[in-house]
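> example.struct
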């Protein structure tokens, strides 16, 4: 990891893939799994409006509680990524959804990331070979341009 100053990070809320780049070579460095769980159900819970009973008399909507739990998990995930990305000077953040923008915003709020270069691009899900090619092509364009 130490030999790379440029990194591409494909990120969504499920996982992140770090791809190091140096002088035309790209290498997958690490895959980081997210602690964010999509669907949480407690034992005996039917759906969001019926907890432990199918009767609407006992309905309890836990949207607020579930939202707070999800936000805390997302923040924990972004903090994990923030620590992993600290050695790199140039960061390409790409992937589907909003995770890449949230990560960029978190990094920009951290003073230790002042002076580092960020690029944010949208992309679909990719195979490992597609990830390597995407990062390689992106940084080659930057070097030439």
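> example.seq
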């Amino acid at each position: 990891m130490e030999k790379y100053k440029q990194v591409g990070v494909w990120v969504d809320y499920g996982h992140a893939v770090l791809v190091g780049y140096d002088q035309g070579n790209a290498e997958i460095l690490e895959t980081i799994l997210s602690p964010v769980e999509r669907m949480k159900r407690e034992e005996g819970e039917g759906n969001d409006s019926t907890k432990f009973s199918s009767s609407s008399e006992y309905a309890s909507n836990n949207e607020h509680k579930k939202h707070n739990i999800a936000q805390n998990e997302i923040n924990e995930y972004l903090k994990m990524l923030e620590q992993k990305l600290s050695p790199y000077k140039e960061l390409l953040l790409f992937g589907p959804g909003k995770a890449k923008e949230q990560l960029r915003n978190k990094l920009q709020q951290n003073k230790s990331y002042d002076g580092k270069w960020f690029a944010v691009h949208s992309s679909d899900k990719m195979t490992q070979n597609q990830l390597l090619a995407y990062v390689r092509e992106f940084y080659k364009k930057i070097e030439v341009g």
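> remarks
The mean pLDDT is 86.
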